[in-house]
Amino acid sequence: MPTAIAVTSRELVLPPPDGQTPSAVVLPDPREQPLDAAVDATAALLDRQGYLVVLCPAAARPELIRRLHTVRSLLESERMALLPLDLPPLAVAVVARQLRRLSVSDLSPGVLACAARLLSHYVHAGARLSSVARLDRVPVSLGSHLTSWLPGAQFGVLAHPAPALVRIGGPGALPAPGYATQLTVATAHPRQQAPDWVTDTLATGWGVQDVERVPLPAESARWWGTGKPTEFAAAIPDLSVLYRLVTSVRRTACHWCGLEVIGDRCAFCSAPVPRAEDARALAPPSRPALTSRP
Questions:
Q1: Do 164 and 174 reside in the same domain of the chain?
Q2: Which of 216, 235, 254 is the last residue of a domain?
Q3: Tell me, what CATH number does 213's domain have?
Q4: Nearest to 267 by CA among 67, 75, 79
Q5: In this predicted model, what pLDDT tens digit does every residue of 143-200 receive, in sequence order?
Q6: Please, which domain of life does this record's source organism belong to (predicted)?
């Protein structure tokens, strides 16, 4: 049975690209579910699935992060991985969908959970904003702050993998991915198909394979510091490419919980992967060879 992938709001569950991709589990907000009910529901989920990988924006509300850690602590389970990603909300949803697709493959739970950090490096996440006056997650120059007060000013902002900001209509352009991507665009009214800077200029300049429109996550306005951002995330859409990317990384066994992992830290127990010299130091001494008595 595949490892369950969970997110912290319904807007982070993107439509599956095929009939084989499982949906994500939505963990209710602490304001909507008592703690004892959350513990019981998570325990039942772990009994059914075996392992649970929870993704959320690292900048989520502190009470939400505390709830996740409390549930995991009360269950005393190392089969629940909590992965706060330093990405905008839509990009977290994109990575969650990639993990959902990979969850039906032969990847072990430890490798699948660790793959979230790897895949996040290949997501170009940003937004079109009408103001950057309250944007504190990307460096903003004094000139851009002043321009925000001009009527009709628009900005293209890239938050990941490297911060960048351009004024729409100006000479600059956001750096494009160097590989084939699909562009997911989130707006408050996704059914409106009128082209704008994101779906026209940016999508053309980046040479994306396809454009997908989805509802705007509830956390996006707070993350971007403005009421109505147009958020976008370009990511690798090909499942075979994602699988090869993950399986090309060297795997090791976690010295604490024993799960197979990639990267420098186990996603389930948070134990760091020892460096080569550390691993030699932790290895038990070799037993001397037995010799027969004369």
A1: yes
A2: 235
A3: 3.30.1180
A4: 79
A5: 655 455 555 678 999 999 999 999 998 888 999 999 999 999 999 887 766 568 999 9
A6: Bacteria
Side chain identity at 55, as an amino acid letter? L
**More confident of the two residues 46 and 192:** 46
Tally the domains of the chain.
2
Q: Which of the 8 DSSP states describes residue 123?
A: -
Q: Are 9 and 26 in contact (CB under 8 A)?
A: yes
Task: Please list the residues that pair with 215 across neighbouring strands.
Answer: 187
Chain CA centroid to CA 170, Å: 31
Which pLDDT tens digit goes with each residue over 8-24?
A: 999 999 999 998 999 99
Buried b (16+ CB within 10 A) or exposed e, 104-123: eeebebbbbbbbbbbbbebb
Residues 131 and 229 in one domain: yes
Q: Which domain holds residue 181?
A: 124-235
Assess contact for 217 and 93: CB atoms under 8 A.
yes
